[in-house]
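General statements about sequence and structure are easier to judge against a single worked case. Part of our work consisted of pairing the sequence of a single chain with a tokenised description of its backbone. The amino acid sequence and the backbone structure tokens for this protein are reproduced below.

***
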Amino acid sequence: MDRKLIIETVAMLLFFAAFAVISVGTTNGIPAMWWIGFAAFVLAGLLPVATRFMNHLADKPRDVGMEFDDRTS
């Protein structure tokens, strides 16, 4: 897997975790838990933006087009 895919997968998992943590922190009245969830939410939002500015020169080019399509018709 390339680094961009890993970072964006972590961001998605952070979004899922942040929603749960914010919900639990708000429901139970625990401000620290709410802030931890909010920080995870902000970090998850910034990670995909950071991948935009990564160096992609080492990435392998992928073949695109109908002749390289692995899906069945």
Observations:
- The longest helix spans residues 3-27.
- The helical segments are 3-27, 31-52.
- The two ends are 26 Å apart (CA to CA).
- The CA atoms of residues 16 and 41 lie 9 Å apart.
